[in-house]
Write a structure and sequence with these properties.
By secondary structure, this protein is of the alpha+beta class. The chain is about 35% helix and about 15% strand. It has 5 helices and 7 strands; from the N terminus they run ββααββββααβα. The longest helix has 18 residues. The chain is globular. About 25% of the residues are buried.
């Protein structure tokens, strides 16, 4: 699964706010990765078609056992509806036995800054990964992309 660029789903009006969700679900053992990603395409379609969608940019990292499906909704209700609508609801429920404890942070941001917000999320993720890199600062973790940036 390739990393896809930010896709604007609906052009927000000037000055609008967005509710950005930046989840990072993670499969426990590597053997569960196929099951983990099996429902990904259906859940992705649902995120893109759910009411109130402003943008999305799914990132799949099978060898790290994670996905990062950031998305932005027009309001908090749309965010909850998206999370609880099929097929995403069933996919996430069925994956609970193979998932590590996952974090689903969200925040409100200016809708006009969404692609920039995505870049900031990616920078925050890289900083967290560098801090928890098993090879330590400046090292290269197995399967890594090079030195860990501090």
């Amino acid at each position: 699964m390739p990393t896809l660029p930010w896709t604007t789903l609906t052009q927000p009006p000037p000055g609008a706010r967005a509710f950005v969700t930046a989840s990072r679900p993670e499969a426990r053992p590597l053997r569960d990765v196929p099951r983990f990603f099996r429902g990904y395409p259906a859940a992705r379609r649902q995120v893109r078609s759910a009411p109130g969608g402003l943008g999305a940019a799914p990132v799949a990292e099978p060898f790290r056992r994670t996905s990062r499906p950031p998305s932005a909704r027009a309001d908090e209700d749309a965010r909850y509806v998206c999370a609880r609508t099929e097929p995403r609801r069933s996919v996430m429920t069925s994956l609970r036995p193979v998932m590590r404890e996952s974090v689903f942070p969200f925040r409100e941001a200016p809708a006009g800054d969404l692609p920039a917000d995505r870049r900031r999320l990616a920078e925050e993720r890289r900083a967290r990964q560098a801090a928890s890199d098993p090879a330590g600062p400046g090292g290269t973790a197995p399967g890594g992309d090079g030195p860990a940036a501090a």
